[in-house]
Amino acid sequence: MRGGDLPRVVAYAAIYTVIGIGLPLQQEAITVTHVAGLVVVGLLYGVLLSFAMGRMDVGRRGLMMTVMPAIFAIEYFNPII
Amino acid sequence: MGTIVGFLLAAVYAIIAVALFGSSPKASTLGSRFRECIGARARIGWIWRFIVVASSWLVIYYAFGSIVRPYVLPFYEDPDFPYQLVLPSARIVLVVQFIRGFIYVGSLTPLLVSLRSNLKELIMVMTGFLYIGGGLGIFVIVESFPAFLRVVHGLEIFADSLFFGVMISCLLRKPG
Fold first, then answer.
1. Which residues lie across from B115 on neighbouring strands?
2. Residue A64: predicted pLDDT
3. Residues B3/B4/B7/B13 CA torsion (nearest 10 deg)
4. pLDDT along chain B (176 residues), means of 10
5. Residues of A31-61 as b/e, b for ≥16 C-beta within 10 angstroms?
6. Model ipTM value
7. Angle at Cα B123 formed by Cα B117 and Cα B126, nearest 5°?
8. What residues make up the domain containing A28?
9. Does residue B10 lie within any of the structural domains?
10. How far apart are the C-alpha atoms of B174 and B117, rounded to whole Å?
11. Contact A50 B141 (CB under 8 A)
């Protein structure tokens, strides 16, 4: 993780958790364990994003339009395939 | 409907990730990085590597699936098991996992191209995104699934992700 990125990682985990709780695809009941799971996954994503994006040599447009959507889509391919 | 929402969410997460972590302006564009990589090897060299990596997912999936099969199969075959797990036919699994290998390569290649990292870091990043996006989320969050199955399938997916991360990083990174 890049130095000084901890607040960004926490912010990412918070956003991931809020979206996860309100996710329309959600079929499970929201419990403390469920929220804790979302927080853990959000934090891991945040740390990985901080690590990876510090090593990327591509402009913001390429990242926003191609690289990152393709990566996040992996999570949504799996229920289909 | 769920798929469309999922892909919209992927776009939303991309915007959030870039807004939070995409700080300093970079000299390269994704197109220039792709051209740089493609030019570093003969076309035929990339084609066979792409096919070998995408096809390797099927081998990796079956290898680790076979290891966990004796432990998870009773849950799939138990008619009284409340989660109604279904084991698809071998033909369906073969076709679906073959396609999945190509989808994974397609999803990870832009990331691989955009990174300036050594092999060890590439493997870590590839494995990390595959594992977190490809299974950890599901097995951590869906708590109604039995803990034993979550642990066994979670380990299986980690092994799948690690071996596929090694394959894609070793064979599809820019040489030199």
1. A56
2. 82
3. -110
4. 79 90 76 90 95 97 94 83 77 91 93 92 95 80 78 92 97 88
5. eeebeebbbbbbbbbbbbbbbbbbebbbbee
6. 0.86
7. 100
8. 6-77
9. no
10. 10
11. no
Phi, psi dihedral angles at A56 (to 5 degrees): -90, 135
Q: How many domains does chain A have?
A: 1
Q: Provide, as residue numbers in chain A, all residues whose Cβ is less than 8 Å from the Cβ of B132.
A: 41, 44-45, 48
Phi-psi sector, B18: left (phi>0), alpha (psi -120 to 50), beta: alpha
Query: Which pLDDT tens digit goes with each residue over A27-73?
Result: 667 788 888 888 999 999 999 999 998 888 888 888 888 888 888 88
B94: in domain: yes
Asked if the model's pLDDT at residue A24 lies above 60, the reply is no
B88 touches chain A (CB under 8 A): no
Contact A37, A65 (CB under 8 A): no
Cβ neighbours, 10 Å, residue B25? 7
B interface test, pick of A9, A55, A74, A81 with most B CB neighbours within 10 Å: A74
Task: Quote the domain boundaries for residue B119.
Answer: 37-172
Residue B3 lies in a domain: no
Is the dihedral angle over the CA atoms B142, B145, B147, B152 positive or is it negative? negative
Site of tokens 């803990």: B147
- Residue B24 falls inside a structural domain: no
Q: Mutation target for B interface from A63, A65, A80: give the one with most B CBs within 10 A.
A: A63
